[in-house]
Predict the structure.
Amino acid sequence: MFIITHRHIGHRVACVCLAIFLSCAASNVRAANMTRAQMQTILDESIEALLTGQPFGPGLETKQLALRKSFEAGAVTKDQLIGMVETSMMPMLDAYHERISVDSLKTLPARVEPLLSPYMSWEEVKAAGWRIASPHINKSIKDLLTGQPFSPDLVKKQLVVRKMFEAGLITKPECIAMVEAAMLPILNEHRTSRYILKEMPDRVEALLSPYMSWEEVTEAAWRMGSSLIKDGDQMVLSIGTLAPPGTPWMNMPEKVLLPRIAKLSNKKVVIKVYGGGVMGEDTDILRKMDIGQLSGCGCTALGILAASPETAVFLLPGFFRNYDEVDFIMEKFRKRIDRSFEERGYILGALIDTGFFYMFFKNPVAGLADLKKQKLLTWFGEVETTFYKELGIDATPVAVPETIAALSTGLANANLAPAAWMLGMQAYQYADYYFTPPLLYSPGAIVVSVATKEKLRKQFGVSETLAYNVQEMLIYEVSRLEPEWKKEVRDYEARSLKAFQVKCGMKPVPLSVEDQKTIAEAASRVYEKLADKAYPRSLMADMQKALEAYRAGL
């Protein structure tokens, strides 16, 4: 019979304690001796489970315990640990983009703390995620600004970034900061254009909405672009126009464009508009632009024809029947029209309306036969004078600023003009009758000198690419007002005609079918006489073909 003594018990307890001690010591030795590669593998497995929302499992938790002991033993510094976490996250955001869910991302703060704290905080893990997401945002912004399509690989990364937004891992201020940080290097090295910017709102909304809007991206681009202009300095752009104050041609820039550019640029880009012809008529303004005294012109038909003779095709009598046709042709041929201005040193900032031109009279008229008895003036050039000659009418040429004086003194008692201009210039008081329908259409335009970018480059020492991009951003801001600007002009035109009849007693005189036929025949002769002289025949033919298809509903 074996008798257990206190001595035996003490011996066995000592053996058990020794075994436990040796086991723990061995574990500590293994933890302390864990290689960087082994630690990286455990981090990879852990972060994969975190990102995909999977539980760690007993086996992985045991490895994590050893990993934490390595951290305790000082096996890696904090900076090294941050680098290892980024190394784990980077390929997984790509490889597991479909498995990463918003819900799994939302659980990250609670799950990361027990794994890495106090060696790496959740804020530091989140910052690592931003650093990984930032290049993808940079590449996305670059592709947007340069008009490039997103690659399939980038689209995968964008999907994860959007999930990070949705999970609240990237806040709106953080997103704006990331976009701002991307902007300046891109604008400094890569060209954008007004055409690319026009397509960007939809692309930006698809990429960043509702976390960042197109307007906020625009503001970020302007903040970065204008940041190179020192505080207290300003780039001043001066624009001259014949448009009188109080008309939609002046109201839109004064009430919308000028305040917007001042706000976007933090008042570092300032636009000054000189209206009412104080800078002369259109041709005077264009000459001042050519020598650098002015930066732009709000053009009537006279200035448009001087800046781009090809646009004479827009003024051909009877070419357009309504504004829908005008808008269709303007949109379809816009780049071609833009090029015609740029070939002569101008940029077409906005293509709007002067309006449909009506023939106004002081004396009673019944039709075309009476027109020959009137003292008619002409002011906008070859198309108008050729048209009158084809109708057998002599007209007196005058400069635009002199038209009111000519009408008020009796030098003329008839003129061809848009109703909005007649109201704005108060020329309606010299007319009691007008023909319907209108005889022709004329566009209006905001034209900017191509030297604007050179002014920016030389004055503030910015790169040629950045100067070009700021110029294009400015042109885009002007052009984006076109729809609203046109609506204002057209509404003003309709109100003008109504006011002429209701308040002034002016009488519309409908042209007979025979008179309209005579006008159409004269217009056809004008088309032929001026083709390849005032404008390319091919441009007129292409526009006519497009209009025929449009009218046929094709």
Remarks:
- Residues 1-32 have pLDDT under 50 and may be disordered.
